[in-house]
Amino acid sequence: MPAPDDAHARAAFLRACALDVETRKPGNVSIASAGHRMTAAQFIESAAVASAGLFLPGARIGARILEAVRRTSDAVGCNTNLGIVLLAAPLCAGLERLPGNQAFDAKHWQAATESVLASLDVEDARLAYRAIALANPGGLGEAPEQSVHAPPTVDLRAAMTLAADRDSIARQYANGFADVFGAGLDAARDAGIAGIANAQAAMLDAFLTFLCTWPDSHIVRKAGAAMAQSVTRDAAMHRANWRAAGRPSHAPELDAWDAELKAQGINPGTSADLAVAALFIALLIA
Length: 286
What we know:
Triphosphoribosyl-dephospho-CoA protein
């Protein structure tokens, strides 16, 4: 199968973003359950405007990130998708580096994405820092090195590597998106993505897989490590029960957990962002 053209890639990205809110993921904003002072409509609009920045042909990664975040800020006035944008930008650029005569699969896409990451420079970091400052994500504090509140002195990948032990999105820049192309994609494939029910199951499985494997970075920043670890333990139990029940499209146990998390103001946003990236990949290589 040849590499997808821009139209197919953009459609897969928008579909993954739509699944993000069509799927009722515990603690996250969805069509069925708004929360955290945001609505599903804001996420859908954000994806549409951000895609114009992410799919800028030949653009450097920092420019894609900043343009996508600017467009999102102008459209909805809040941070709905910074994590998604940070993950999608290298993936979109990686698609452009795939040779036309090469078979398109996850292995080659990951290798192309790694090539993109290896080419990042200080200008990419400067532009990405501006985007992060504009999005102003909740709970973002001072970092011991290369804080986003000061001009960067290292390339974007090096800056992300410094944060990799405390942020799962930064870790993807450090490890060549190993978690997204690995655990996330495996979970999506296990659930299957053919048809609306299976696509939502794939999104939920990828989300729960990330949430039960690592403490969610957004929860850590907003509510502390102890709360994040507690949610991770609960996620492992809920995922096991949901899988044992055959991955039902409606799971009252998960609905109750969703309400509980939102009542506490707990939002596993990083796990959702990683799941969107995994579904973006899965939808294109299915």
